[in-house]
TrEMBL record, chain A:
Belongs to the binding-protein-dependent transport system permease family. The chain crosses the membrane at residues 27-48, 88-109, 121-141, 179-197, 218-237, 275-299. It comes from the Bacteria. This is Carbohydrate ABC transporter permease. Its main location: membrane. It is found in: Cell membrane. The keyword Translocase does not apply. Residues 84-298 form the ABC transmembrane type-1 domain. Keywords: Membrane, Transmembrane, Transmembrane helix, Transport. It is a multi-pass membrane protein.
UniProtKB/TrEMBL annotation, chain B:
This is Multiple sugar transport system permease protein. Keywords: Cell membrane, Membrane, Sugar transport, Transmembrane, Transmembrane helix, Transport. It comes from the Bacteria. The keyword Ubl conjugation does not apply.
Length: 311, 278
């Protein structure tokens, strides 16, 4: 079915083409199906969300047009500002920690040693594991009385912690899970960067008597910097939208101590069925993500620019 | 002299092995503990100090999961949703990845990037309403359709990368010989791109299988996928740890096995996808 319709559309497109040329076939028909799907499940929801965000509408009640009132309400909503702060802390920590451990792991896995392939395979497993399953097991490990983590801490002479059950430790505890799960992605990206690093500069640096730290700081770092930047961008976008782990472990609690924008958005739309307000929140959230990506991309462009200058 | 150098090298690599082992140990400990939890009776799971290897192995935890929670149905739901969404994504995404690569329309790839940046929840509100109005809620179709948001971008993204690296000469020769663009794609470009298709298939499969957020909104008792089923066990149906951990393991085991067997492809795909992602 699909192939027939594509062939037809290829034929149609051929007749309509303004500049007939054998060497430049028309590729648009190939893109068309995906374009249709994308507009159905991505563009349509966006237009619809924008429309709903200017309406007051709780599911089961009549809808009324209220202009920007939802946005005004959002600006005055303390719970929203708090969730913004939670999101900022959560995201910052969930970028920095995986970046540190991921780079360290990449440097190790870039060297040669026995069982390297096997260990790397094991190291990658967390990012492929189902987040809900991971969250479930961590919840049991975080249990204040029966959890294995407090038992392990007792060996280090550290008293029992309340982990996700305490409003001050809940975000760091969730970040611990996020770091455990997503450090491998950073490792893979940086490993890709290290694979492209040439050997010669290191040889001449060794002749000049550079130590390991100097070689890392002045040779490796600048060469893998673009890859670190990519890792930062991807990690930021993923961490800011993190949902599965937080929702499965705390639902934003205790109280609202770990309620990020995404969780608050979920509660508003699907627990309180306040569709209009939830849509406004979705729009604002989207622009926050876009703004963040834009800033990070700018930083990256800048970094590339200064690289060019030094060369 | 040479002997000492060799000994030095072995020492170095053993040292690296040791450090690498320490880096990997949180992963090993986690999965070991997960297996341990799933194979212990309540008494052992509640013991302090914790027990890693129980005297009595509770295989019955696994039986309980299937007997008491309709897990076979949810497993089948997951297979249907993930399978259909992934296959549809290949049918739609592979040709379009080809088209975008050949058109050199990198700008259209921005749309894919934006899809990645958009929080899943913002698709959910309007589509949830749409599915309610069309009466599709209660079937698996809403989940299949919305999983395309996950699978199509992955496939398109990886396929663009693959088709950009495959040589143009053969395709040009074929079209000079009078092949239509569709024939060129099917008979020349597609066979070369097989490894890319495998990579995108595996990754789309994994990320669709793991998806949780779409399910909790769109699924009911009959249409739950596995991640939702596991979450519901945690929140409503029971609090005993053994069966819970067993359920968690059942959900994630297919993905972990796939990861182990297709490690090379997955690493290649993720690195390519990620590097292009910037």
């Amino acid at each position: 079915m699909a192939s027939v319709s594509i062939e037809n559309s290829v034929a149609n497109a051929k007749q309509k083409r303004s500049k007939p040329s054998r060497l430049a076939p028309n590729y648009w028909p190939f893109v068309l199906p995906a374009l249709l799907v994308v507009s159905a499940v991505i563009v349509f929801p966006w237009v619809f969300t924008l429309w709903m965000s200017v309406n007051s509408w709780t599911l089961g009640q009549p809808r009324t047009f209220i202009g920007f009132a939802n946005y005004v309400r959002l600006a005055q909503d303390m719970r929203f500002w708090e969730s913004l702060w939670h999101t900022a802390t959560y995201t910052a920590l969930s970028v920095v920690l995986p970046l540190f451990f991921g780079t360290l792991a990449a440097l190790i896995f870039d060297a040669k040693f026995p069982f390297r392939g096997l260990l790397r395979g094991v190291f990658v497993m967390p990012m492929m594991a189902t987040p809900v399953a991971v969250a479930l097991v961590w919840t049991m490990m975080f249990h204040p009385q029966l959890g294995v983590l407090n038992y392990l801490l007792s060996f280090l002479g550290i008293g029992p912690q309340e982990w996700i059950y305490n409003q001050f430790t809940v975000i760091p505890s969730l970040v611990l899970v996020e770091t455990w799960q997503w450090t491998p992605l950073v490792m893979l990206i940086v490993l890709g960067g290290l694979a492209a690093v040439p050997r010669e500069p290191y040889e001449s640096a060794e002749i000049d008597g550079a130590n390991a730290w100097q070689k890392f700081r002045y040779l490796t770092m600048p060469m893998i910097a673009p890859f670190l930047m990519i890792a930062v961008i991807i990690r930021s976008i993923d961490a800011i939208k993190s949902f599965d782990i937080i929702y499965a472990m705390t639902q934003g609690g205790p109280g609202t101590a770990s309620e990020t924008i995404n969780i608050y958005l979920y509660n508003t739309a699907f627990a309180y069925y306040d569709i209009g307000y939830g849509s406004a929140m979705a729009v604002v959230f989207f622009f926050i993500i876009i703004a963040l990506s834009f800033v990070l991309l700018m930083v990256r462009q800048r970094a590339n620019w200064s690289d060019m200058e030094t060369k | 002299m040479a002997k000492r150098l060799i000994r030095r090298k072995t020492l170095d690599s053993l040292g690296l092995l040791f450090v690498a082992f320490i880096m990997v140990s949180p992963v090993i400990l986690f999965f070991l503990w997960m297996i341990s939890l799933s194979l212990k009776y309540e008494i052992d799971n509640g013991a302090y100090p914790p027990i890693l290897f129980p005297e009595n192995v509770a295989w019955s935890n696994y039986l309980k999961v299937f007997e008491e929670n309709n897990f076979l149905l949810y497993f089948w739901n997951s297979v249907l949703v993930t399978g259909t969404a992934t296959l549809l994504a290949l049918v739609i995404g592979v040709p379009s990845g080809y088209g975008i690569a050949r058109l050199k329309a990198e700008k259209s790839a921005v749309v894919i990037m934006i899809a990645r940046m958009t929080p899943g929840l913002s698709f959910l509100i309007p589509l949830f309403l749409l599915f309610q109005w069309t009466g599709l809620i209660g079937t698996l179709w809403p989940q299949i359709i919305i999983h395309l948001v996950v699978t199509v971008p992955i496939v398109v993204w990886i396929m663009i990368g693959y088709f950009e690296t495959t040589p143009m000469e053969l395709e040009e020769a074929a079209s000079i010989d009078g092949a239509t663009p569709w024939q060129v794609f099917r008979l020349v470009a597609l066979p070369i791109a097989k490894p890319g298709i495998v990579v995108s298939f595996i990754l789309a499969l994994i990320f669709s299988w793991n998806n949780f957020v779409f399910g909790i909104v769109l699924a009911n008792r009959e249409t739950r996928t596995l991640p939702v089923a596991v979450y519901n066990m945690l929140s409503f149906e029971q609090v005993s740890w053994g069966p819970l951990a067993a359920a968690a393991l059942i959900v994630t085991l297919p993905v972990l096995l796939l990861t182990m067997f297709a490690q090379k492809q997955i690493v290649a795909g993720l690195t390519a996808g990620a590097v292009k992602g910037g």
